[in-house]
Specification:
flat
Length: 107
């Protein structure tokens, strides 16, 4: 099995931080979009969703590694929300092409 170098770890962490904060920024700055364009749907399906899935897996890995320390600090819930829940909602709950992490029937 190939070992992941330090650069790979930093790349995953950067993706987690950048993509994990995207839904929060979209909710505060963007108005709700009723019907996304076809181009937005294609870009979302081919680019954003795979990257967000990687961010979700990376966030889960970082959460598991940091779990003993976050448990000692008493902030397991906030760490789980930031590292796992936010990117997972952006990946799996959003309608295709939408910028806000809600299902289409919740608009």
């Amino acid at each position: 099995m190939k070992r992941v170098g330090l650069g790979g770890i930093f790349t995953v962490l950067a993706l987690v931080v950048l993509l994990g904060s995207t839904p929060a920024m979209a909710q505060s700055n963007q108005s709700l979009e009723a019907r996304p364009s076809g181009g937005a749907m294609v870009a979302d399906a081919l680019i954003a969703r795979p990257l967000l899935a990687v961010a979700t897996l990376g966030g889960t890995a970082v959460f598991l590694v940091s779990l003993p320390f976050t448990a000692l600090g008493g902030n397991v819930d906030s760490a789980a929300e930031t590292l796992i829940k936010t990117p997972a909602e952006a990946t799996f709950r959003r309608c295709l092409g939408c910028k806000v992490s809600r299902r289409a029937d919740e608009f």
